[in-house]
Amino acid sequence: MSQIKILVMVLAFIAGFIIMAIELLGGRILAPYFGSSIYVWGSIITVFMLSLSIGYLCGGKLSLYNPNLKTYGSFFAIAALLLLPLIIWSNPLMEALFLQIEDPRYGSLIISMMLFFLPTAVMGMIAPYSVRLLVDSTQGSGHVAGKLYFISTLGSALGTLATSFYLVLWFEVNQILITMLLTLLVAGITAIIIGTKIPGAEDE
Amino acid sequence: MSNYKVAPTSRQLAKTEVLVIVALAILIFTVDLFAQNGVRNIHRERSLYRNILVTEDSTRRCMRFTISSRSGQNQSCRFVDNPVALVFPYAKMALSGLLVKDNPQRILIVGLGGATLSDTYRRLFPDAEIIISEIDDAVFRVARDYFDFAETDKIKVDIGDARVYVKRAGLRGEIFDLVILDAFNGEYIPEHLMAAEFLQEVKQLLPEDGMVIANTFSTSRLYAAESNTYQSVFGEFYNVRMPGSGNRVIIASNQPLLDQDTLESRAPAFLQRLEVFDMDITDFPELMSTEITWDTGQRILTDQYSPANLLNN
């Protein structure tokens, strides 16, 4: 496997890890305003599934036009920036919504849309775009997609485990989120630099 | 001697089967005896949050949040022939708060369970308004059907998350003379009800002489984390512990705490009122310690850092 392909696999793993880590922290973030009842988790999971599905659609569509590492890296950088509202404005947003909406079911659903939809949708674009960067032939496409699902879902499993077992015990929620943001940013910039510096990297 | 394995004949097979069945029957019988021990399961229900089991033996009826009849603690028990007497030390430890402040007019209880505390306070203060925040509708129904709990014009239950209830009550400017937090003795701890921010929200509901009573943990790192959290919000508090009880009760007040002598001098006046609950309150002043018996270096619990369940391992 070429180095570029290894890079894509590593980045897909990171994206998988971070998506689930954020989903898990979502429960923590919403609890002070909406509780931790089953419908709060229902709201969070609904929004993650919805945004990922739309992300897959958009990422797949974008992969039709001149697929390259620079665009791929920009998904990570944009997702990182879209996490900022979650870190900076989540409390004032939740407070405003708490005052507006009495029913915690719809309150938690709407705040989940506001906080998680955009970053998760952009992270969802990564998976189909990764497949396009990895695929050499139609014959091997299923194999490549399988490997990609494997690595990104493995990342998700580890992200869930690490966050719920250890990270919340060692760090504050915002410290974890900021680390995720920086990781996405570094991952994105790395992909953009390699995409710019290595001529024809995207053709390999 | 043959090296070939001989297939068992049907007679041999039958013999083995009979043996296995007999062995299993003995095993099941023994396990059953062990499990029952005179305890009958009179109601079993799976709610959104837990399994609820109501058991009864010749002396007690109990509500448990549990997986099997042998695992899990009793949430709440009462004596069959005297439902008023308090079974568990924690309820008596909570009542010792009367020495600090008597006659609350509005009481908020977080966590209904078998309604032990709400019944006790209702008997003590028939004119007080009692609001109970309970997340689980099923617990409410079981308390009503098996523990004689009833809503009245003075006693109301709000089904929902206590964090949400407290926040909204604060926005409405509601005041409670006494807030009792009794949601922490299940197998899962609601972490957002342990954070300093939540205690601040509770504190906002209290008048100047208001009081918080929390039934919580006396072991593990959580004991220290929680103690430091209460200290950060309320300052010094009474830490009530009894030998042989896994619970400890925190009694925190907005006012400066009374010294041991004052508590002792107040106790005799309550003796007769509390007799019906099988409680000798004169035992309690010496248990109401303000001594710091935990690691003050343990991080306080906040909305940002609240791994209560992990700390409780």
Structural write-up:
The complex is a heterodimer of chains A (204) and B (313). Helices cover 84% and strands 0% of the residues of chain A. The mean pLDDT of chain A is 94. Chain A starts with a helix and ends in a 7-residue tail after the last helix. The longest helix of chain A is centred in the N-terminal third of the chain and has 32 residues, at 3-34. The relative contact order of chain A is 0.22. The radius of gyration of chain A is 18 Å and the shape is elongated. Chain A has a single domain (3-203), classed as MFS general substrate transporter like domains (Growth Hormone, Chain: A), CATH 1.20.1250. Chain A contains nine helices and no strands. With 313 residues, chain B is an alpha/beta fold. In chain B, 33% of the residues lie in helices and 21% in strands. In chain B, the strands form two sheets. Chain B has an eight-stranded mixed sheet with strand order 7-6-5-8-9-11-10-12, with helices on both faces. In chain B, strand 2 (51-56) and strand 3 form a beta hairpin. The longest helix of chain B is centred in the first third of the chain and has 27 residues, at 10-36. Chain B starts with 9 loop residues before the first helix and ends with a helix. Chain A binds chain B through residues 28, 31-38, 98-99, 104, 165, 168-169, 171-175, and chain B through 48-49, 135, 160-164, 167, 171, 190-192, 195, 197-198, 302-307, 310-311.
Determine and state the CATH class of chain A: Mainly Alpha
For this structure, the CATH topology of chain A is Growth Hormone, Chain: A
> Which structural class do you get from the secondary structure elements of chain A?
mainly alpha
Largest interface: A-B, 20 and 24 residues
Q: How many domains comprise the coordinates of chain A?
A: 1
Which H/E pattern describes the elements of chain A? HHHHHHHHH
CATH architecture of chain B: 3-Layer(aba) Sandwich
The CATH topology of chain B is Rossmann fold
CATH architecture of chain A: Up-down Bundle
Low-confidence stretches of chain A: none
